[in-house]
Amino acid sequence: MLVHLAGRGKTMKLRHFRSALAALGLLATQASAQEQPLSTKCESAPLMTAWTELGEKGKVAQFIEYAVAQKIEPYKAFDNVYYVGICWVSAWLLTSPQGHVLIDTLYEPFTEQLLANIRALGLDPKDIKLVVITHGHFDHAGGAARLKSVLGPGTRFAMSREGWREAAEEAALSAARTRPWTMIEPDIVLSDGQTVTGGEVAIEAFETPGHSMGTISFAFDARDGARTYRAFTVGGLGLNRIRGPDQVEAFIASVKRIRTLTQDGARPVELHLATHGFSTGLTEAKDLLKTRKPTDPHPLVNLQGFRKQLDDLQAGAEKRLVIERQRKAN
Q1: Which of 56, 170, 215, 241 has minimal CB crowding within 10 Å?
Q2: b/e map of 168-184 (b: 16 or more CB within 10 Å)?
Q3: Which among 167, 210, 182 is positioned nearest to 317, based on CA atoms?
């Protein structure tokens, strides 16, 4: 049997697709998730392949709720930056002696995994002073309520104004679905260019609508020994739930703006710590940290790759803009 991979112009045998799923741990096993060791898989290429097919077959929910596939080891990415997310979606912890900043909350039940990941790294979740959320989709905002209950009143939560509205709307709509969630009341409302702090961590917000109209991206310092890089997390990778040409135009403008940040003569963005690591080959790059020598370049610093990703995002969006304009005209 053959299955078609949308947008790739090629097919693959079902057995090959099953092999891709197996490589990711997506095929069900008899053992419970608790009995499984931490996955060392979550490879980018098989996941991209499997993601396309899962989307075509309406089986994305099976993957994103499957604990064995999602559970991966947390790790230290930079001296002050840790990956505490799961396979499918990232969560980044920016640390300082006076307190930490968390980017995104994951979603239930995996917010518990996020907390466990932080503890496994020898850090205390209750040292988180600020949680910034890229946008209102459940996989990024769905764990906010749980985190707020664990972290307590001293921890602040921040989104764009439209992001808060989107998250509340998404949560309300989820009540009639199989995966309901609740959203916290708005706290800090971020504006474009605003810098907020948690502990000694400063993080700058950039409004980058398009993935959702409330999407916000973040720039921050990532330290590697004596070197400090300007890191960036793009709040929304790709177009989602497209509602006409205006959204696509906004996305293209956001991509162009992010590209200019990589060309800033004073303090350019030098690396991308993505909200979905498989989109950038993060799994493979971070594995190089284990064997990195003191004189080796940092494997997560790939400015050329980041710019290529931006080029690809813009090219795809420009093609979609033609379609959306034609639809509107008709």
Answers
A1: 241
A2: bebbeebeeeeeebebb
A3: 210
Dump pLDDT digits (tens) for 46-105. 676 665 665 555 555 666 666 677 888 899 999 999 999 998 899 999 999 999 999 999
Q: Which helix (H) or strand (E) holds 247?
A: helix 245-261
Q: Encode burial over 198-229: b for 16+ CB neighbours within 10 A, e otherwise.
A: bbebebbbbbbbbbbbbbbbbbbbbebeeeeb
The model's pLDDT over 203-248, given as tens digits with 9 standing for 90+, comes to 999 999 999 999 999 999 999 999 999 999 999 988 888 899 999 9
Work out the end-to-end distance of the chain between its first and last CA atoms, rounded to an integer number of angstroms: 38
Question: Could you tell me the pTM of the whole model?
Answer: 0.84
Helix axis angle, 144-151 to 111-120, nearest 10°:
50
Q: Which of 124, 30, 29, 116 is nearest to 71 (CA)?
A: 116
* Cα–Cα distance, 250 to 68 (Å, whole number): 37
CATH level 2 (architecture), domain 73-329: 4-Layer Sandwich (3.60)
Please give the Cα distance from 314 to 68 (Å, whole number).
34
Domain ranges, ordered by start, for the chain:
1-71, 73-329
The total number of residues shown for the chain amounts to 330
Neighbouring CB atoms inside 10 A of 283's CB total: 18
**Rounded CA gap, 66 and 295, in Å?**
39
**Tokens found for residue 119:** 């503890």
At residue 39, what are phi and psi to the nearest 5 degrees? Answer: -75, 140
Tokens read off for 309: 């990703």
Contacts within 8 Å (CB) and 24+ apart, 203-207: 203/94, 203/101, 203/103, 203/130, 203/132, 205/132, 205/158, 205/160, 206/257, 206/258, 206/261, 207/160
Nearest to 234, CA basis, from 329, 109, 140: 140
Residue 238 falls in which region: left (phi positive, over 0), alpha (psi -120 to 50) or beta = left
